[in-house]
Amino acid sequence: MRIALTVDPEIPVPPQLYGGIERIVDLLSRGLSGRGHNVTLLAHPDSDTAGRLLPYPGRQSQNLWDTVQNTFHVGQLAFDAPDVVHSFGRLAYLAPLLPLRIPKIMSYQRHVTTSRVRWAMRLSRGGSMLFTGCSDHITAEIQPHAPARTVYNGVPLDMYEYVPSVPEDAPLLFLGRIACIKGTHRAVEVARRTGRALIIAGNVPDDEIDYFRREVRPHLDGEQMRHVGPVDDDEKNDLMGRAAAFLMPIEWEEPFGIVMAEAMACGTPVIGTRRGSIPEVVTDGETGFVCDDVDEMVEAVGRIGTLSRKACRRRCEAHFSAQAIVDAYEQLYVRHASGT
Prior knowledge:
The chain folds into two domains: 170 residues, Glycogen Phosphorylase B (Rossmann fold, 3-Layer(aba) Sandwich); 163 residues, Rossmann fold (3-Layer(aba) Sandwich). The protein has 340 residues and is α/β, with parallel strands linked by helices. It has a seven-stranded parallel sheet. A six-stranded parallel sheet has the order 10-9-8-11-12-13, with helices on both faces. The protein has 13 helices and 13 strands. Strand 8, helix 6 and strand 9 form a beta-alpha-beta unit. It starts with a strand and ends with a helix.
């Protein structure tokens, strides 16, 4: 098949540090190319892809002129006549293609602006537009307004070493943006109340500096609680593999949370709050614990030994691996291109 993938222009594919959507696009483009498909990627000029790269002329999605240039750039795909155009970027970039019969798929990795979904459906030629959500939680936001399917996010398993066992005193891990909605302060409280070591990895955004200084930094002692800053893929793999459990104490409706799949790829169970996609990703009592509050998270830490690290890895292989994700999208392309 001739497949065109689009993503927003700010971050190269693959990203050097953070960039969850760009990681998904990278594993998808490489997986599809490896299966013999003709893949075209529209992305940041510094992207590295197994297929053909059509670099965007504009670098900022929020800049009007850049948006106009990039929308025109995507519109040129009409002359390529791809079998399917799959967007992980701005829905507006698809505007020139909406009235055409070219099959189009828009994937949402974040919460949905339903007015834009309805706009796209009004403009699109009948049956040519399909949406996907990265979890049932997101798909449910789309389905009242447009046809939508769930395709989970995933990780390339060869990047993550499965660690079958860790010492009893292995640390807990929090990895992600240091922010109130990510619940870093909750992870600190869980570690404090359980007496477990906690490693905090991730950047502190400018608008979260006061939060970090108030809620996190006073508890850092360099021993029980440490902040190691942003980490690259190798460092992430090492931290994940050495952790007794990964803490996901979010205070918002997380659309997916690729970091949970990364943890399970290493065999590390996830202890998270009952928000967003966490109940879908974590099998409660098997690959982690889904909790309603910090009290339940504290209690769950005491039951880490009842979980199977092998079960964590197997769940990632079956549902959140690169192969599983490429399989799901490839099947979707075939059905959508054939009108079924």
